[in-house]
Amino acid sequence: MTTPSNTVSLGATVLPTYARADVTFVRGDGCRLWDADGREYLDFVGGIAVVGLGHGHPGPLAAAHAQLDRLWHVSNLYWSEPMLELAAKLSARFGGAQAFFCNSGAEAIEAALKYARKATGKPGVVALDGSFHGRTTGALAATGQPGKRAAFEPLLPGVTFAAPNDAESLARAAGDRTGLILLEPVLGEGGIRPLEPGFLAAARGLADELGALLAFDEVQTGVGRTGTFFAFEQAGVEPDLVTLAKGLANGLPIGCLLAADAAPRGFEPGDHASTFGGNPVACAAACAVVDAVDEELLESVRAAGSRLAAGLAGLPGVTEVRGRGLLLGAELDRPVAPIVDACRAAGLLVLSAGETVLRLTPPLTVGPADLDRALATLAEVLAPA
Questions:
Q1: What's the CA gap between 179 and 213, in Å, rounded?
Q2: Are 140 and 159 in contact (CB under 8 A)?
Q3: Distance (Å, whole) CA 323 – CA 231
Q4: How far apart are CA 23 and CA 344, in angstroms?
Q5: Listed residue (182, 186, 204, 205) closest to 195, CA to CA
Q6: 58-292: CATH, from 3.90.580.10, 3.40.640.10, 3.40.50.300, 3.40.630.30
Q7: Whole-prediction pTM
Q8: Domain boundaries, the chain
Q9: For 48-86, what is each residue's pLDDT tens digit?
Q10: Tell me: the pLDDT tens digits for 222-261?
């Protein structure tokens, strides 16, 4: 077992793809985590919007345990009951869709890129400045942050970028060769910036005009995070494709591409695959998550999000609060990195979303007492010296 004394030395055996904080977590329960020294933290990161029901939630925990006792893995050359059940549940939530299962959000985006190219015969992709869709080569090519792309270029060609919430910019970025318009309903890594319903409607109209597909990247916003099961429900705009991952199985690895029943067909046998996609254990847990994200929980997410947003707006140094539900960003009048570190030292885990944006993604099950405790800690950290 890893202990506090050997964590640093063992860390030398891991490729440095993350700037990890010097803490090793060993246990979680609800909205709390404990590190290897036994210290307790209030978790307003939630695995970066992943542990939506909280650590150790009994629903997905029991479902995963039961499935482990039955079947861990079966090839996608065959069916499995949890995969079929999950596909049916997601189709019902969407209003009619077919599912492709994989292991991560980036994989789901790669599937969307291929699906759109096959269905439309057009290779062009339009995404947004500031967007983030993943770090695999196709997903990275569609990520509107040059600093993340530069070291790995040339990437997938034919990707153009438009300004968020600017329909004219979107139209200029698109053209006859555009086969996919790819949007996050709320830009996550790009500063927690919601897209306006009118902009999403304009994107829908533009896609129809060009014979392109409209895809919503709901890897971070989906599965109840914004107060509805899909964030796009709040805009009344229906996409052709939706990608899901993070919160879908409450921490077990899973990704999903949903293709609307009304969308052109893009895949046939042999076009795409994922060896571990549709894993029975992950799908069983995801079924329990989908069942748990009911209207009662969504109402609670909306109420908790309003309470948290109002509290953030009154904190020193906060100039703007953005987001939906429990995906919130507080624009600060100072760099955010020292604030994230100071909160962790005070027992509160929070995130950044850019150089000056504090990001909060607590479990959807967070209660009023924990919201107030987090706000009190933030008030202390942000108070003038």
A1: 6
A2: no
A3: 11
A4: 10
A5: 186
A6: 3.40.640.10
A7: 0.96
A8: 7-57+294-382, 58-292
A9: 999 999 999 999 999 999 999 999 999 999 999 999 999
A10: 999 999 999 999 999 999 999 999 999 999 999 999 999 9
